[in-house]
Design goal:
Blueprint lengths: L11 H13 L3 E7 L3 H16 L4 E7 L2 E3 L2 E2 L10 H5 L4 H9 L7 E3 L1 H25 L8 H22 L4 H23 L6 H18 L15 H19 L3 H13 L2 E6 L2 E6 L3
Parallel strand pairs: 1-2, 3-5
Antiparallel strand pairs: 3-4, 6-7
Helix pairs in contact: 1-2, 4-5, 5-7, 5-8, 6-7, 6-8, 7-8, 9-10
Length: about 290
């Protein structure tokens, strides 16, 4: 169009106001974007939209921080740019999600292979907790003990911290802390039960459900709860059970070198053996 200053055309600020009001109405609940867009883009959107409609434009703004590489903003111009698909070739989706959630979304996050390696290890620890929760879900017992009371209290505390953290502008960094505190309490209770402490199903189920709720909201390890076995191949499972029985026989005969060799050889092909109070378990590394 013509103007006193020359020909005019829509700019990116007015485009967003036009599209937003057309498709979402005069007022929207959430508007997101990078923190570098606060000025001038989002401030212009507010001025234009509210000046046009006379209505409040946005109820909640969500401005995310940047992923940095060696404390520099990731960008194509600096040639330090990578895609999610590139990261997923090396790390699991759960580890990447946990890495992103470990820092508040408004804060910068420095990309690091070391931190992703640590996130992957944390996922393995959480998988072990899920396996113990599933094992306890099939157990029976109703005797209340000091251990079961502590577990129930830990579950209540974790859920309280979780709600407070999420109410505090989605402070996912605090939620992951609550998650690991509860994981520790579940592990302690599991070991105490297998050491002879009376089992209380109500407390165990409460802790397990609380743990699952937190993980589900964060979107971490969702498939683990549906997994019944490390493999669906029955013959493979039968073979592994035979190997574990042979290893256990060697341990009973104090032939520890043979038992350790079986464990180490399986480890070389990605099979992890975990000795528990109720016997040995196996899983594929990273599964």
């Amino acid at each position: 169009w013509e103007s006193p200053w020359g020909k005019g055309r829509p700019g990116w600020h007015i485009e967003c106001s036009a599209m937003s009001t057309h498709y979402l109405g005069n007022t929207i609940d959430f508007h997101g974007g990078g923190s570098d867009l606060i000025f001038p883009h989002h401030e212009n959107e507010i001025a234009q939209s509210e000046g046009c409609t006379g209505c409040h434009f946005v109820n909640y703004w969500l401005h995310n921080g940047f992923i940095t590489i060696n404390s520099e903003k990731m960008s194509k111009s600096l040639n330090n740019f990578f895609l999610v698909k590139d990261v997923l070739e090396k790390y699991s989706g759960d580890a990447l999600r946990f890495f992103l959630l470990s820092t508040h979304y408004r804060s910068p996050l420095d990309f690091s292979d070391d931190r992703l390696e640590e996130a992957e290890k944390n996922m393995d620890k959480l998988k072990d907790v899920i396996a113990r929760i599933k094992e306890m879900s099939s157990m029976e017992g109703s005797e209340e003990t000091e251990a079961s009371r502590k577990l129930a209290e830990a579950a209540d505390h974790a859920m309280k911290v979780f709600h407070e953290a999420m109410d505090d502008d989605f402070n996912t960094g605090l939620t992951t802390g609550a998650m690991f505190e509860l994981a520790k309490a579940i592990n302690v209770y599991y070991n105490e039960v297998h050491a002879g402490t009376a089992f209380n199903k109500e407390a165990a189920d409460k802790a397990g459900q609380t743990f699952k709720t937190i993980l589900d909201v964060l979107g971490i390890l969702e498939k683990e709860w549906k997994k019944e076995e490390a493999y669906d191949d029955k013959d493979y499972n039968d073979l592994m059970n035979v190997l574990l029985e042979i290893r256990q026989s060697a341990r009973k005969a104090k032939q520890y070198q043979i038992a350790d060799e079986i464990r180490d050889k399986l480890g070389e092909i990605g099979i992890v053996i975990e000795d528990t109070p109720t016997g040995a378990r196996w899983k594929k590394r990273g599964v």
